[in-house]
Write a structure and sequence with these properties.
The complex is a heterodimer of chains A (about 250) and B (about 80).
Chain A: E1 7-10, H1 16-27, E2 31-36, H2 40-52, E3 56-61, H3 67-81, E4 86-89, H4 104-131, E5 136-140, H5 144-147, H6 153-173, E6 179-185, H7 198-207, H8 216-227, E7 238-241
Parallel strand pairs in A: 1-2, 1-4, 2-3, 4-5, 5-6, 6-7
Helix pairs in contact in A: 1-8, 3-4, 4-6
Chain B: H1 2-16, H2 37-51, H3 57-62, H4 66-76
GO molecular function (chain A): 3-oxoacyl-[acyl-carrier-protein] reductase (NADPH) activity; NAD binding
Protein name (chain A): 3-oxoacyl-[acyl-carrier-protein] reductase
Enzyme class (chain A): oxidoreductase
Chain lengths: ~250, ~80
């Protein structure tokens, strides 16, 4: 297996893209820390499924928007598996609303969970990523971070900020062979997007050249590739998985 | 004195991949031990863990030799 004995942390592991990613990475042979904040039952069920297939994983609850939470994840990985090779910053929330009416707390919460968390978790993990002389940081952005999106000023700002953060980390950590990239999914069918009305989903699908919404597995497949040896020359990039929605 | 020096020496040898004999008190991390700026940051983080203390960026900037580190840690203990 291409990632045998590598250690990966996946944040937001109880969500759609997070759980698909965990399954892919487990299949590739990584030992996993499945991090969740809410949704412990889903995280535990995922862990049981991975173990039943012969994978190794540890579940950890943490609020990744705090330094303490980020520290818990790094510590869990190091104590359980001796280091960290791969960090997938996937945790995210939305608090949509028109900019004119957006509450300050909704702004703060989305920025903290989607952007500050990446700063904190990457910082907590970097010492180990650098030491492993392998290191992969894979950040989950969004195509709306490139295009803007009405009703998502907070989310878009966080996802656009993630692009700049990623490019900067890519430069700073390159000397230790740590690669840092953003994956920008388009419309992916997850709990985050299932609140979108069906007729709107159909309209969205019509705008996508490939004619369908994406699945979490479409994103997870790219994460698995980026986590692997063969992606060692890719860093500082924004890779879109969006069916051609944004070109 | 000797104990702190020995512990620092072990970390420096481990992190920078240099010979123990090179790690003299007057050895400069950058000039004598071939450390780049990332190495120094890593070294500072390692020292923080080893000696259970927090080294501010301001203090970290003043550290250029092995002796500086030993002296700094002793002043904090």
């Amino acid at each position: 297996m291409e990632l045998q004995n590598r250690v990966a942390i996946v944040t937001g592991a109880s969500g759609g893209i997070g759980s698909a990613t965990a399954r892919e990475l487990a299949e590739a042979g990584t030992r996993l820390v499945l991090a969740y904040h809410h949704g412990g039952e889903r995280a535990e069920a995922l862990a049981a499924e991975i173990r039943a297939r012969g994978g190794e994983c540890t579940v950890a609850q943490a609020d990744v928007s705090t330094k303490e939470g980020a520290g818990i994840l790094a510590k869990t990985a190091v104590e359980a598996y001796g280091g960290i090779d791969i960090l997938v910053n996937n945790a995210g929330v939305t608090r949509d609303g028109l900019f004119l009416r957006m509450k300050e707390e909704d702004w703060d919460q989305v920025i903290d969970t989607n952007l500050k968390s990446v700063f904190l978790c990457s910082q907590a993990a970097s010492k180990y990523l650098m030491r492993s002389a392998y290191g992969r940081i894979i950040n989950i952005g969004s195509v709306v971070g490139l295009t803007g999106n009405a009703g998502q000023a907070n989310y878009v700002a966080a996802k656009a900020g993630l692009v700049g953060l990623t490019k900067t980390l890519a430069r700073e950590l390159a000397a230790r062979k740590v690669t840092v990239n953003v994956i920008a999914p388009g419309y992916i069918t997850t709990r985050m997007t299932e609140s979108i009305a069906p007729e709107l989903s159909e309209k969205m699908a019509e705008q996508i050249p490939l004619g369908r919404l994406g699945q979490p597995g479409d994103v997870a497949a790219l994460i698995r590739f980026l986590a692997g040896d063969r992606a060692s020359y890719i860093t500082g990039q924004v890779l879109q998985v969006d069916g051609g929605l944004v070109m | 004195m000797s104990d702190v020096f020995e512990r620092v020496k072990r970390i420096v040898v481990d992190r920078l991949g240099v010979e123990e004999s090179q790690v003299a008190l007057n050895a400069s991390f950058k000039d004598d031990l071939g450390a780049d700026s990332l190495d120094v940051v890593e070294l500072v983080m390692e020292l923080e863990d080893e000696f259970d203390l927090e080294i501010s960026d301001e203090d970290a900037e003043k550290i250029t030799t092995v002796g500086d580190v030993v002296q700094y840690i002793q002043s904090r203990e």
